């Protein structure tokens, strides 16, 4: 009996690997930046409208607004908690605006607003300052003094007999303001108090949105008297945070289940805890290397890159299995691997070449995924090649109990070439026919279809928007300009056009900043309506004839009117911190040295007619945005661009295969099972009712990498039945583990996880038997 050889221990490679892992970990600990903002992951828009939509998604006030309702309890309790809640949120510093309809009488005493009344009030006109106009205004004031509003009229009578200030405030009432009860906003049925809160951070900064949502819940739970009340939150920040948390929670749950299943499979197959632990080293090395590479290349790592990149590296789990299944008791692990390494190396390089195609997409998220996958695959292969052999237990060999499967594989190997070709042709034709049958419903470019948000949450959002009179963020006109005054002027012209569309019934209404803060030209026109002080004094004296006002009582009016004639036009900066500023903050803002005036559309009934009208009547700086249509167009453009690059990907894969196999027949032996597996995968998906998305494409790339491995190993010239048995053992374990892991993901209710899981499970489950049948070299020997 021969003694088992002692393992050839070489510690240089494991120690170097350990040093590199430590260096990578230290680098990430000190220099890594993990970004949660989706802004860096989104593709750049190809059209001006798409770029504008992305700008709006990133920083528009509408995407930073949280819709809030307080339900339960009594009306008085809800109103009191609403006031305390608004004050607590203002004090947090996380929100630029918190509104609950609570009226602060002191806001009427703002001397700045009172001084600006003649420039801001839409009621100001030259006729107001004629003798007849002044006399009529004074008579109205007399009647008002005897009405329930007498105190209010008396308060401003001496300085504002024309009533311009109250007219200005009246014009600022929202067109669709919520009802008020006990001094705060309430829903139409009076059962919920309503609030709005606008975050200071950008809408795509998910960590900041998470902090804001947590603060909203924590502050509410800390309020005195909140017991028995229920907080309802919605709006873009809340939906974004909910989506991320749902995906994260489900991904962790399903990934944990898949990892446990994989670990159990490896334990059953190899009966060694040590091998189970060693099997994790290539994958851990891959994730570490991928993260370092992305951080070095892009300056930060997106959380989505880590999540989906780790999925793409699933093929790295196969590498140690190839080694483990080929171990023999009387041959060292290093020698066993040397026998496998050319095939494994070619598989790694071919798979990496496939991911090179992601680098040229121009989509930052996919470019990061490409770098992550390539660096990870190379690291996993390096760890398998140079580290694992020196850590393997001595004289280990797995038990290969594959008698029935071996007979099947041998039968496939003996299948005549004509039958193989006929089978491939039949499968390919059937798959193409299925794809052609579903050609009209092949792609899914609607981002909403990928959302994990429940219909109940969407219904809550619609209800709160309706109750608050908040416009739908999906329909708006965006006006761009070089400065604020130009933006206001252009939006005023847009409003003039929209009045016609409102009259046609295409929409119910709209909102715009110029309604509150007119541009400088309009403000100057109103100034010009005010006569010089001597002229106004004479007209006022005449107008007072027959009226019971004391002489000199309107001296403040003459003083303020003259001062208003010399004011500079009011600017957004001057309005900040006033009631006027609160009105326009949502509608007028600067971003990247450009000014944007938003015109949210309310109750759009004819979006296609509106889009056609704006296309036929271009207004300088104005763009009609249907966010749903633009996002669909963006995804379609990007998907077409990605599909167009598949030719370059195929060329890169072919080049690597030709370099490794050198003969067209050998290349075809590997590529035919791969192409058929991809074709059948797509056909099965569409037959199951799936519409393909970007995530299906990413999963198909992964399937291609795994399929190439299967075909390369089945195609290896192996005359020894024992060698074929070890190859079959490795490939069967790889296929069973991969199909099992992704089948678990496929049952997820989340569209993204389901797309990845279903595509990978079907693709790999198809690639394995196809490689067995089509890639093996024909032979007549029996096991």
UniProtKB/TrEMBL annotation:
Transmembrane region(s): 251-268, 275-298, 304-324, 344-363, 369-397, 418-436, 643-661, 668-688, 694-715, 727-747, 753-775
A Gene Ontology cellular-component term: plasma membrane
Compartment(s) of residence: Cell membrane
Domain Membrane transport protein MMPL: 181-392
Alphabetical keyword list: Cell membrane, Membrane, Transmembrane, Transmembrane helix
InterPro entries recorded: MMPL_dom, Mycobact_MmpL
Bilayer disposition of the protein: Multi-pass membrane protein
Pfam families, A to Z: MMPL
Keyword Flavoprotein belongs to the record: no
Major localization class: membrane
Name the record gives this protein: Membrane transport protein MMPL domain-containing protein
């Amino acid at each position: 009996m021969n003694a088992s050889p002692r393992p050839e221990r070489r510690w240089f490679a494991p120690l170097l690997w350990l040093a590199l892992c430590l260096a990578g970990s230290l680098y990430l600990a000190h220099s890594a930046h993990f970004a949660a903002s989706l802004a860096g992951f989104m593709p750049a828009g190809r059209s001006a409208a798409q770029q504008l939509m992305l700008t709006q998604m990133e920083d528009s006030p509408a995407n930073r607004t949280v819709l809030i309702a307080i339900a339960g309890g009594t009306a008085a309790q809800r109103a009191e908690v609403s006031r305390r809640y608004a004050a607590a949120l203002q004090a947090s510093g996380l929100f630029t605006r918190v509104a609950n309809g609570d009226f602060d009488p002191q806001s009427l005493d703002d001397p700045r607003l009172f001084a600006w009344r003649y420039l801001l009030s839409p009621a100001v006109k030259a006729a107001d300052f004629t003798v007849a106009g002044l006399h009529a205004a004074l008579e109205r004031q007399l009647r008002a003094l005897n009405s329930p509003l007498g105190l209010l009229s008396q308060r401003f009578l001496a300085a504002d007999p024309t009533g311009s200030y109250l007219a200005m405030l009246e014009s600022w009432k929202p067109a669709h303001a919520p009802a008020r009860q006990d001094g705060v906003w309430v829903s139409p049925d009076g059962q919920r108090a309503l609030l709005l809160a606008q975050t200071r951070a950008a809408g795509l900064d998910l960590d900041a949105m998470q902090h804001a949502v947590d603060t909203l819940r924590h502050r509410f739970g800390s309020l005195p008297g909140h017991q028995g009340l229920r907080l309802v939150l919605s709006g873009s920040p809340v939906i974004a945070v909910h989506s991320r948390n749902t995906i994260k929670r489900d991904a962790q749950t399903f990934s944990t289940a898949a990892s446990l299943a994989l670990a159990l499979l490896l334990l059953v197959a190899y009966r060694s805890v040590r091998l189970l632990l060693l099997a994790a080293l290539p994958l851990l090395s891959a994730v570490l290397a991928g993260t370092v590479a992305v951080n070095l290349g892009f300056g930060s790592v997106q959380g989505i890159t880590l999540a989906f990149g780790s999925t793409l590296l699933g093929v790295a789990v196969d590498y140690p299995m190839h080694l483990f299944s080929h171990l023999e008791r009387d041959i060292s692990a290093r020698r066993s691997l040397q026998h496998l390494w050319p095939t494994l190396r070619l598989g790694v390089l071919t798979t990496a070449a496939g991911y090179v195609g992601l680098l040229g997409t121009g989509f930052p998220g996919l470019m990061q995924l490409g770098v992550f996958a390539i660096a990870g695959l190379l690291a996993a292969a390096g760890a398998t090649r140079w580290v694992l052999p020196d850590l393997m237990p001595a004289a280990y060999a797995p038990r290969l109990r594959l008698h029935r499967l071996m007979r099947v594989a041998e039968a496939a190997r003996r299948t005549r070439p004509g039958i193989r070709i006929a089978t491939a042709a039949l499968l390919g034709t059937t798959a193409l026919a299925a794809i052609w049958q579903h050609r009209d419903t092949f792609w899914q470019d609607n981002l909403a279809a990928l959302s994990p948000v429940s219909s109940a949450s969407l219904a809550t959002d619609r209800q709160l928007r309706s109750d608050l009179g908040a416009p739908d963020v999906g329909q708006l006109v965006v006006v761009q300009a070089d400065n604020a005054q130009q933006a206001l002027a252009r939006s005023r012209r847009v409003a003039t056009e929209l009045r016609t569309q409102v009259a046609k019934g295409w929409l119910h209404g709209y909102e715009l900043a110029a309604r509150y803060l007119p541009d400088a030209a309009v403000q100057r026109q109103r100034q010009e309506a005010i006569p010089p002080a001597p002229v106004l004094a004479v007209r006022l004296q005449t107008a007072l004839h027959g009226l019971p006002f004391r002489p000199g009582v309107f001296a403040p009016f003459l003083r303020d009117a003259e001062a208003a004639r010399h004011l500079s036009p009011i600017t957004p900066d001057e309005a900040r911190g006033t009631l006027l500023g609160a009105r326009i903050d949502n509608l007028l803002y600067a971003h990247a040295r450009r000014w944007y005036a938003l015109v949210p559309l309310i109750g759009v009934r004819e979006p296609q007619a509106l889009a056609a009208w704006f296309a036929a009547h271009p207004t300088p700086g104005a763009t009609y945005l249907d966010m749903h249509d633009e996002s669909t167009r963006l995804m379609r453009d990007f998907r077409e661009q990605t599909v167009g690059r598949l030719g370059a990907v195929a060329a890169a894969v072919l080049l690597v295969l030709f370099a490794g196999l050198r003969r067209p027949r050998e290349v075809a032996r590997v590529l035919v099972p791969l192409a058929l597996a991809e074709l059948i995968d797509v056909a099965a998906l569409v037959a199951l009712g799936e519409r393909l998305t970007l995530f299906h494409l990413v999963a198909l790339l992964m399937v291609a990498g795994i399929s190439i491995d299967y075909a390369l190993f089945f195609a290896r010239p192996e005359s020894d039945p024992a060698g074929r048995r070890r190859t079959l053992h490795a490939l069967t374990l790889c296929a069973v583990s991969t199909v099992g892991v992704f089948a678990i993901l496929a049952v997820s209710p989340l569209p993204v996880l389901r797309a990845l899981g279903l595509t990978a499970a079907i693709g790999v489950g198809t690639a394995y038997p196809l490689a067995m049948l089509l890639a093996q070299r024909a032979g007549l020997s029996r096991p």
